[in-house]
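User: Sequence recovery, please. Input:
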């Protein structure tokens, strides 16, 4: 059962507006997180038709980042930068996310080691599956980033 998140979405991510695309954490547990975003007229990446469907992969990647942020904060560690390194079987079933759509985005751990992870991700609108993919992500250690001027 997912539990409420005591952290705000911006405390879980290194992203900042306008590229922090998520609104909130709906719930999480040790293996999964569910986040939400409502498409608004002032949403990042909005066009006259809405937000393009291919942005689904970034919504799912940010859900993975929010999961990593929760795990870090619960372990007393800082939130760190992560990278999307690949995806498998990404299916997006709509060309646009429309103003007023409330997206429920989930990311569930499939595999995790110290720096690499795979997540099964999906996006639903009102219980209807809109997009899904398996994402592979990488989180370098802080020493690597500092050695490379980051």
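Assistant: Recovered sequence (150 residues):
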């Amino acid at each position: 059962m997912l539990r409420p998140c005591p952290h705000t979405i911006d405390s879980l991510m290194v992203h900042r507006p306008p590229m922090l695309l998520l609104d909130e954490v709906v719930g999480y547990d040790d293996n999964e997180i569910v986040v939400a975003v409502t498409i608004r007229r002032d949403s990042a990446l909005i066009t006259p038709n809405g937000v393009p469907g291919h942005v689904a992969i970034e919504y799912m990647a940010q859900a993975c980042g929010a999961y990593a942020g929760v795990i870090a904060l619960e372990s007393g560690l800082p939130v760190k930068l992560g990278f999307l390194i690949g995806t498998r079987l990404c299916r997006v079933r709509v060309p646009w996310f429309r103003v007023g759509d409330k997206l429920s985005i989930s990311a569930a751990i499939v595999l995790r080691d110290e720096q690499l992870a795979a997540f099964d991700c999906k996006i639903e609108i009102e219980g209807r599956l809109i997009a899904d993919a398996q994402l592979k992500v990488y989180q370098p250690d802080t020493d690597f980033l500092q050695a490379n001027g980051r």
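The longest strand covers residues 102-112.
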